[in-house]
Each structure stands twice: as structure tokens, then as C-alpha cells.
Amino acid sequence: MDHAASASQHDDRLTVVPSRWRDLLALTKPGIIGGNLIATLGGYFLAAHGTFDWVTFSTVMLGIALVIASGCACNNVIDRDIDALMARTRHRPLAKGRISITQALGVSALLGVAGVVCLALGTNGLTVALAVIGWGVYVGVYSLYMKRHSEYGTLVGSLSGAMPPVVGYCAVTGQFDSGAFMLLVIFCLWQMPHSYAIAIFRYADYRRASIPVLPVVHGIKRAKHHILGYIVAFIPASLALVLASQAGTGYLCVALAMGGYWLYLALCGFRLGDDVRWAKKVFGVSILTITAMSLVMVLEAMVPMWA
């Protein structure tokens, strides 16, 4: 074998290894993990009330990240057929066959066990149970059945999507109290318009894959009414944290400003002609809203620590 051929094979191996790691990372949906970690931060600091424990904080953040990564990897296995039909997801590793089902399930199992062990060692039994329930709802109820068979799959999926901040909160308190319940309601209500907006601007993808989301089943106009209704419910639910003295003035201002703008944008959808552009704005503002609210929870809790 000449030196040129040897060098070429060596370069190929160097290319394949990083590519495999990128595929394994993509399997866990890092963007979803990042967004959920911000929500977990909010829940943790909301419950901390000026106190901080490095062990609890580190283990809940790492543990929930691993559990979410496990659920996402499992979801990729379940959705590999419909992912291949959708423009947004057709290049995913499993849809393209770059990773085998066995490998993906192995990664999912490893991450899930590591996450549960991490939470068990550094938090409490309730936190572990909530994380496992969130994983089970997302993988076992939503991904395996509801997503493909019912327009209410989005509602069921919102329960698992709302679990990370509750996990962060209960890691501190060790109990499911009114604060945990309010976080669950707030994040469930937030998930609905957020998800319906995605379904509107990805309407063609969902229809091609025969996924019965509300806009596909009942039309975009009805989905707009649902988006408006859920945002109307979300705003007072988010303010309940202030009324219960769980959050302060900074949170109140951010929740009112962001919620109010989100509501205004939802109302604009009934007079704008470009549904795709409108839905993308609703989606973008939904991300900004929940991120801002979560971060202000963190900032309000950190002020007493610095005082």
C-alpha cells in the first residue's frame, strides 16, 4: 500500500469518528436539553429562596439532563419512520440509518440509568419519581401511542414537557406543594400554544407524516383559537406565583410584559394573511417568554445570596 492510500484511509477514519460522535449527540437533541435545563434552573431557584447547595444543584441539573437525553434518544428510535418523511427531521441519524436501533437504545438505556442514579444519589425520592414519570409519559404514552393516534397527543406531551422545572423545585423542597403544582400548570399551559405554533408552520410535514395534530385535524383557524385560549389561561396562571408570594416584582413585570406581548401576537393571527410567518413569531416569542420568566426566577433568588 502506498503512502497516499494509507494517508487517505487515515483521514477517512478521522472523519468517521467525529461524525459518529456528532450523530450520537444529535440523538439526544441538545437544543431540547438546553431549553429544559433553563426551566429546571428556574424551578430550583424558585424553591431555594436564597439558599444554595452545590450537591443538590449539580446532581439535579446533570441528572435531569441525562434523563431528558435518554427520552430523546428513545423518541428518535420510535419516530424514525415518520422522521424520514418530514423535511425538518429527515436527516436525523436514525432516519438516515447512520446509527442502528440497537446502538440508539443502548445509548438511551445508559443515559437513563445514569440520570436516575445521579438524581437518587444527590436529591430525593420524589425528584427521582417525577423524572421517571416524565420520561415514561414522553416515551411510553406520547411517543409510542398518542402522537400517532390522537389530536390530544400534544396535551399529553405537555405533561412531560412541564416536568423539568417541577423536578428542579422538588429537588430543593422534597415535597409536591402548591409551588410545584403552579409550575406544572404554568409550563403545561405554555407548551400548548408553543406546540400548536410549530404544527402550523410545519403543517406540510405533519400532514405528510399523518400526525394528527390539531391544525391538521381541525384546521389552522381552530388552532389559532386554541393558541389564543391557552395564552389567556397562561397569563393568570403565571401570575399566581406572585399572588402566592413565590415570586417577586421582577418576575411580575416580566410575566406581564412577555405574556401581554404573546397575547397581542396571538390576536394578530386573526388578521394576518401569512400563517407560517405568524406562527414562527408566536413560537419565537414563546421561547423568549418562558426563558425570561425562568431566568428572572433565578435572579430574584440570587439577590438574597449576594446581600
TrEMBL record:
Name assigned to this protein: Protoheme IX farnesyltransferase
Chain's gene name: cyoE
Statement: the UniProt record of this protein carries the keyword Cell membrane: yes
Membrane topology of the entry: Multi-pass membrane protein
Keyword Cell inner membrane: no
Other facts: Carbon 2 of the heme B porphyrin ring is defined according to the Fischer nomenclature.
Catalytically driven reaction(s): heme b + (2E,6E)-farnesyl diphosphate + H2O = Fe(II)-heme o + diphosphate
Stored NCBIfam families: cyoE_ctaB, PRK04375.1-1
PANTHER family recorded: PROTOHEME IX FARNESYLTRANSFERASE, MITOCHONDRIAL
